[in-house]
Amino acid sequence: GEMPVSNDHWVAEESRLFKQAHVSAGIDFKKYDDIEVKTHGGSREETPIETFQEACDRFSLPDELTANIDRCNYNVPTPVQKHSIPAVLDGSDVLVTAQTGSGKTAAFLVPIITAALKAGRKPPQEGAVCPTSVVLSPTRELCQQITVEAERLTFRSGARVCAIYGGADAIPQLRKFAGGIEIVVCTPGRLEDFLQRGVMSMEEVKFLALDEADRMLDMGFEPQIREIIENHGMPQAGKGRQTMMFSATFPKEIQTLAMDFLDPKYYSISVGRVGSTTSSVEQRFEDLSYGDKFDQLLQTLKQVKGQNGPAKTIVFANSKGMVDDVTYQLQNSRIRCTSMHGGVSQSQRDRALRDLKTGRAHVLVATDVAARGLDLPGIDHVINYDLPLNGEDYVHRVGRTGRIGNKGVATSFVTRVEPALQDIVRSLRDARKQDKTASEVPGWMQEMAMSSARGRSQSRGRGYRGGSRESYGGRSNSYGGYRNSSRGFRGRDSWDRDDRDSRDSRDFGRDRDYGRRPRDFQRSFRDDDDDLFDGGFRNGFRRSRSTDDDYNYGNANEYGRSRGFSSYPKAVPMNGP
Q1: Are 63 and 96 within one domain?
Q2: Domain membership flag for residue 479
Q3: Which of 5, 58, 430, 479 is the most exposed place for a label (fewest CB within 10 A)?
Q4: pTM
C-alpha cells in the first residue's frame, strides 16, 4: 500500500497550490454580462450556469472538488465556463473559441475531474498505464500551468495527475505514473513517444481535451495529434469518448480538425468576436522612427504603474537577436528585467518566469513564445517593441494583459508601414462596434493602414515580404518568392521569429549563449530594492553552466531510443562532459 501522508505535508501543499490560485485585483465581473456568447449545435437543451454553486447542485459535483473550487475562490464563472461546463457534464462534445485568459483551463478540468472522482481510483495493474483523461497542450510551459491547476482542483481527492512533456528528463515522468494515473497533461511529441514505447495506452480514455488547438496546428503537431487519436486504440468520438477542443482563433484547419475528431452533434461556443482585441485593454500607439524606439521604451515603462509599484510588463520583439539587444540595453539602463525566447534552455525559461512572478524582475523581454499559454498572472502592461507580422499575433500579445476581467494597457511602437496594420485596425474597429468604451483607432494609423494596402497591391512580384495569415497563410507566393511559414510549416520563418518549435523536444537541454552580447556579462538582482531602476546589473552577458541547465537521461541504452527521442542530447554526467 501507499505510505500515509502527514498533515504537515498537506499544509505545505495547500500553501504551495493556493497561495496564488487566482488573480483578485481589479476583476471586473460586471463585464461578463456584456460579453457576447454565440452557441449552436449540441442537444439544444444545454443551459448555462450562473454560479459554481449552481453547477455543484445541478450535477452533484464531488465534495472534494467543491471544496477545492472554494479554495480557488471561484465564485462567478467566466462566459466560457458558464456554457462549456454544463454542456460537457451533460455529455456533449464542445468546440470553444475564446480569447486567451478567458478561464478555459477550469472549463475542461471541472468535468474531467468530476468524472474521475465519480469513477473512483483505479487499482494498480501491470503493463501499460491507461489514463481516463488526456489533455493535449502545445508547449511545456502551458502543460505545467494546466497541471498546477489540475493539482489544485484534485487536492486531497485521491485523483492522480501527471504531466509529461519534452525538454525535461523522461525518467521521473515515467516513475510518477508507473503506479497508475487518471489524468495526464501532455505535449504531443512526448506522448507519442511514450505510446510508441508501450508504456502508456489510450484504450480507456473517456475525455480528451485539446487546449490551444490552433497553436498546436501552427507548430506542426497535426500529424502527432492524428497519430495519437487514430492509431493507439483511443475510443471514437461519441462512442465512449468525449472531446473538448479549445482555440483562440477559428481557421479552416480547426474546422477540419473538429469535423474529424468531435461528435457530429458537438456544441459550439464562441465567446466574443473570434480574433478581436478585448475592450478591457487600453491600447496605445506611438508613431516614431526606428532610432527612437529604445528611448521611447524607457519613457513608456515609467508611464504605467502597478498597484504595488512598477508595472509588471512584457516587451515583445520579433527575433531572438532583438530580444537579447533590448534586454542588454535595459539592463545597462538599470532596469530590473529578464528575457525569454526559443533559444534558451527550459531551466532558463523557468527562472525568467519565476523572476517576473516574484517581482525580482519587473520586465520580461520575449518573442511570441510568451504570447500564449504561459502562467503569467497580473500583467499590467504589454509593449510591442516590434509590431507583429500578422493580426492574430497582435491579438494574442495584447491578450497577455486585461485577462479575466482585469484592466490592462498595451502600447505598440509603429515605425513604418507594417504588414499587420490592416488587421490591427480592423480588430480595433470591431471591438469599438461592440463596446464604445474600447480603444479608438488613431487617424494617422488608419492612413498608414490604407497606405500599406496600396503598397501591397503595387509590390506584387517585386520583393514585398509582408502579409497576414489570412492573405498568405504559409504557402509560396509571389511576394519576393520566399516561403511564408506563418501557418502550417515547421521551423522559423524568414523573419527569424521563433514563436513555434517544430517539436517540443527540439533543442532542449543545450547550453545557450545570449547571442551577440559579450561573454563576460553577468545578470544580478538586488533583492533589497523593489524600484524599477535598481542599478544591480553589470555589463555584458556571462555564459554559464549549472547542474539545472543539464539533462541526464541515465542509461540511454537501458531506456532505449526511438524517433521521439532522436533529437535528444546524449547522456552526460550532471557535472558536465
Answers
A1: yes
A2: no
A3: 5
A4: 0.62
